[in-house]
Amino acid sequence: MAFRVVVGGIGILAHVALLSWSAAVLAQQPAAQQPAVQQPASPPPPSQVPSEAPATPALAPAVVTPAAPVLPAAPPPAAPSASPPPSPPPIAPKPLPNWNAGAGIFAGGDSLFGFSGFSGLAALSAPTYGAAFERRVGPRTWLALNAMGSYDSRDVPVTPADEPPIRGAAAVHSLSGSLLLGLRHEIVQSLVTVSVFAAGVISAQRIRPDTLRSSESYQGLQYSPSNARSVGFVGGMTVERQLIEALALRLSLDLASLSFSRTTTETIDGLGVGTPTSFSARRFGVAVRPGLQLHFYF
After folding, report:
1. Fold of 99-297
2. Quick one: pLDDT at residue 99?
3. pLDDT digits over 82-130, tens only?
4. 179 vs 113: CA distance, rounded Å
């Protein structure tokens, strides 16, 4: 019995000695020859974790991105040169009107016709009314066409007849008209426009007095039925002032006229029988004969 106990103790001791020797041999081997056995790490107890060094989480491997090529910086834009601002485009001048039309009244006188007015062979001073049309043919030149007319009726004293009915006056009627075609040229263009004109004229006039009774006669001038035809020239000047846009007031003055006329007159004798008489005349006159007109430009 005692022998079995001794042998068992010796066996236990031999087994312990063998384990000790094996542990020593393993401890002397290089670390590179030991197989790496990774054991799952168990978290340390809370008492062994230092408070000042918190655990750092495992970082993912950094991905290296190739750097973009560095381009040279673009030069700054050149500063604009100090130049004056562009001037606005020039304003086109307003086109000049090429037409104008006018109308007005003109003084009478003792000439057969005129650029401003006429009254007739019998020296009747009725006003004349007229209309004008002009067309621009140059920068300062106009072609003018004028039409004028006048009518006059007045009572002229007569010597009373010897027998009734007795009257103290008889009426004399005068009708005349003319056409003028000529040129007007502007010589001054300022606050007022001053022009000179020259025109050719054709004119006609008719005078019809009341028939006188036996022993009646006109006191002063003798009036007889007559017809007159005339051609000639007239010249003068105009002064024009613009009132508003496209409307102007014009003062015209006849200064000289030259005419060739033929007149047919009936001479009535005491029995009331008329004898026609014709005669021709040449006439040159210098006179200031005004007229006032309104002209519209378009």
Report:
1. Porin (2.40.160)
2. 97
3. 677 777 778 878 888 999 999 999 886 544 443 333 333 334 567 899 9
4. 9
- The segments of the chain whose pLDDT lies below 70 read 1-82, 108-125, 220-222, 268-274
- Spans of all domains in the chain: 99-297
> DSSP for the chain?
-HHHHHHHHHHHHHHHHHHHHHHHHHHHS-GGGS---PPPPPPPPGGGS-SSSPPPPPPPPPPPPPPPPPPPPPPPPPPPP--PPPPPPPPPPPPPP-EEEEEEEE---SSS--SS----TT-----EEEEEEEEE-SSSEEEEEEEEEEEEEEEEEEEPPSSSSP-SEEEEEEEEEEEEEEEEEEEEESSSEEEEEEEEEEEEEEEEEPPP-TT-EESSS----EEEEEEEEEEEEEEEEEEETTEEEEEEEEEEEEEEEEEEEEEE-TTS-EEEEEEEEEEEEEEEEEEEEEEEE-
Cα separation values, 14 from 5, 22, 64, 129, 278, Å: 14, 12, 60, 167, 192
Extract the tokens encoding 24: 């020593």
pTM for the full model?
0.62
Report whether 119 contacts 210 (CB < 8 A): no
